[in-house]
Automatic annotation (TrEMBL):
GO terms classed as biological process: pyrimidine nucleoside catabolic process
Classification lineage: Eukaryota, Viridiplantae, Streptophyta, Embryophyta, Tracheophyta
Molecular functions (GO terms): cytidine deaminase activity; protein homodimerization activity; zinc ion binding
Pfam families from the UniProt entry: dCMP_cyt_deam_2
UniProt-recorded name of the protein: CMP/dCMP-type deaminase domain-containing protein
Organism expressing this protein natively: Gossypium klotzschianum
Amino acid sequence: MLITSSDDEKENKISNTCNDKDQEFTPLSHFLPHRFGPDDLLGKDAPLLLEPRRNGLSFTSDGCENDELKHAALDAANMSYAPYSGCPSGVALIDVEGKIYKGSYMESAAYNPSLPPVQAAIVAYVASGGGGGYERIVRAVLVEKSDAVIKQEHTARLLLQCISPKCEVKVFSV
C-alpha cells in the first residue's frame, strides 16, 4: 500500500497495488466517508489545540502579587486546552537554579489521552535541559478552577512526591 498526495496536494490518495505500472489511486476520503474531527464537537469559532487562546482566568487580590511561579502557573492555565470539560489548569515548576517550567492541561475528546498539566511541565523541564534529576525541582504551583469537575491536584501531588519528594506543592483555585 502506498499513500501519496495528489498533484494539487489537497487530498491524500492510496494505491492498493504493488505493481508500479498499474497503480490506481483511491482518494483517502473514499475510505473515510464520515470522518470525525474537532469541528464535530466544537463550535466553528473554537480555537484548536495549537491556536492561541486565553481562558480568562485571574486571581483575586491576595497579597501574593509578586509570586512569579504562581503567575507562571496562571499563565499556563490560561493557555490550557480544555474545550470539552471546561476545566483549564496549569502548573509551573521551579528548579534549584530558579528556572521556571510551565505546563498546560491539554484535553482530548477521548479524555484518556489527555495530558495533565504536571506532566506537561515535567516534559518542559526535561526538554529545556532541566536534566540532572527530578529532585532538582523544588517548588510547584498548580492553578485550577475552584468548581472544576476534573481536578488535577491529587495526581500532581502524587507524581511530584514520587519524583521529587522534597518539592513544595501549592494549589490555587481561581
